[in-house]
Every structure is written in structure tokens, then in C-alpha cells.
Amino acid sequence: MFKGNLRNTLALFALTWLINAGALAQSKVDKDGFINLIDGQSLNGWSIIGNGSWVVGNGIVEGNKAMGYLITDQSYKNFIIRAEFWANEDANSGIFLRCQDRTKVTSDNAYEVNIFDKRPDQNYATGAIVDVAKVSPVPKAAGKWNTFEITANGSHFKVVMNGEVTVADGQDAKFSQGPIALQSAGGVVKFRKLQIKPL
């Protein structure tokens, strides 16, 4: 009798856990199929690399000290990213795609969608993919909230900033998948939205 009750109780507990886990997973996906990568209250799902200072709160993740990265615990292959970010005039930042080394992120081992208005080589300043797709004219990010929509599908890349296409069809096949990273390499950068939709 006791064993039967215990078995029923455990089964009910397991069923309840599965239902709650399913509801939680569904709540993270919006109506367009996008999943939130930042919650603005914690760094759950991310790891810190380097010496950057990351401040989290009030719905925002802020990087304000060089040199460091946040990198996702999960790896991604083909996807669309939607981001909202703010940068000051001296900001040197970027969103890195398909990172190949979780301990050392660079534009040599990942695809960097740049946020760097003052980059010396303006060909790969804000809105460009460093060493893959140039941008002209260079959109300016400083002092305002901006949006990115970044598509990585196989060897093809597209970047739209504030509704304007900055990279129409960048092409490169070096890296097929990997984590996503956010950079803090000078100045101040803030992210209040970072969503991903696997393709």
C-alpha cells in the first residue's frame, strides 16, 4: 500500500515538473519564434571572459570597461538575431557570431558585427562584419538606442541597422557554428534586447 502511494506521488511529481518545464520553455519563445538571450536581471546562460566590467539591472546589460566579453553557454548555427543597443562616442564593441574559442574571442576566430563608430579603418566600422563585409556609408550609433537584425544562414550574412541594410549579402564559410559573444573593449555599451531565432 505504502509503495503504491509513493509510486503515485513520484509519478505525479514528475508529471508536474515536466508540465512546468514545458510551460517555462514555451514562455521564453515569443510569437515570432524569438528566444531572449538576456533577461536584463542576470547573466544566466552566459560566461564572462577577460577583464571587462558587466553591470546588469533594470532590463539592461552594460559593458563599461575594456577588455572583456560575455559568451553564450549554448552554440548556434543558422539564426536571426534581434538586438537593441546603446553606445557612447568612445564605444568599441560588437556582436560576435559562431565563436570558435570559448576562452579567447577575436574577429579572427568569429564573425564580428561591429559597433565602433571611431574605428580607424572605417570600412569595417559600425554595421560592418569585420574582414568579411564592408560598410558605406558608416551609420553612427553613438548617443542613442539602435537596432540590429543580423541573419547568419550558412555562408551568407545580412545586417540591418535601424531599418537600413548595412550588409546585403556578406559571404564567408570559415565558421559554421559556435557561441555568440558581446564585447566591451572601450567606452560604454548597453544591450536591452538580444533575441535569437534558429533557422
Provide an overview of this structure:
GO terms for molecular function: hydrolase activity. InterPro entries: AL/BT2_dom. Residues 1-25 form the signal peptide. The chain has 199 residues and is mainly β. The protein has a single domain (35-198), classed as Exo-inulinase, domain 1 (Jelly Rolls). It is 13% helix and 38% strand. The protein has one helix at 2-27; strands at 35-36, 46-50, 54-57, 60-63, 68-72, 79-87, 93-97, 111-115, 145-153, 156-161, 164-171, 181-184, 189-198. Strands 1, 3, 4, 6, 9, 10, 11 and 13 form an 8-stranded antiparallel β-sheet that branches. The radius of gyration is 19 Å and the shape is globular.
| CATH architecture type | Sandwich
Write down the Rg: 19 Å
Q: Beta fraction of the residues? A: 35-45%
Query: Whole-number average pLDDT?
Result: 89
Q: Could you give me the name of the CATH homologous superfamily?
A: Exo-inulinase, domain 1
Quickly give the structural class: mainly beta
Termini separation comes to 51 Å
Number of helices: 1
Question: Could you tell me the number of beta strands?
Answer: 13
CATH class assignment: Mainly Beta
